[in-house]
Design goal:
It comes from Albula glossodonta (roundjaw bonefish). InterPro entries: CD225/Dispanin_fam (IPR007593). Its main location: membrane. Belongs to the CD225/Dispanin family. The protein is mainly α. The chain has a domain at about 50-130. Helices cover about 55% and strands about 10% of the residues. It is built from three helices and two strands, in the order ββααα. It has helices at about 50-60, 65-80, 85-130, and strands spanning about 5-10, 10-15. It has a two-stranded antiparallel ribbon. A hairpin with a 2-residue loop joins strand 1 and strand 2 (about 10-15). Helix 1 runs antiparallel to helix 2 (about 65-80), helix 1 packs parallel to helix 3 (about 85-130) and helix 2 (about 65-80) runs antiparallel to helix 3 (about 85-130). The chain is rod-shaped, with a radius of gyration of 31 Å.
Amino acid sequence: MEQKVRRVGGMVKMTKSAIPVAGEHVSLQTVPGTGNMTGAHAFSSGPVRDYRRLAIGSIICGISCIGIYALINSVKAWERRESDPENAEIYSNKARKWSFFAIAAWVGLLILIPVLMALVSYLLTLICLH
C-alpha cells in the first residue's frame, strides 16, 4: 500500500492509501460478533448458562429426584463451558428443561391431589346415601 505523509497541526501523521499494490493481500477489518462465525463459538450466541440456582430450586420446590437430574446436567454444563461449549449448551438446555418439569410436576400434584380427594369424597357420599 502507498503511504502518505500529512501534517495536522504540529503533528505528522502517516496514512495508508486505499489503493492496494498488485500482489499485496489486503486484510479486512471485522467487528467481533457480526457475520458468520466458525469454530467453537458458532453454536452459542453468548456465555453458557448453567441454571444451577434453578436446579437447586427445583430440588427444594419440586420433585426432588427430577431436580437432582437437573442439577447433574447443570454441573456438567458448568464444567464444559470453556472446553466444549457445544455440549455445555446441550447440558444447559437439559438442566433448564428438567428443572421446569420438576417444578411443574410438583405444582400439578399439589392441585391434583385435593381435586381427587374432593371427587372421591363426593362419590362416597353418593354411594352411602343410596
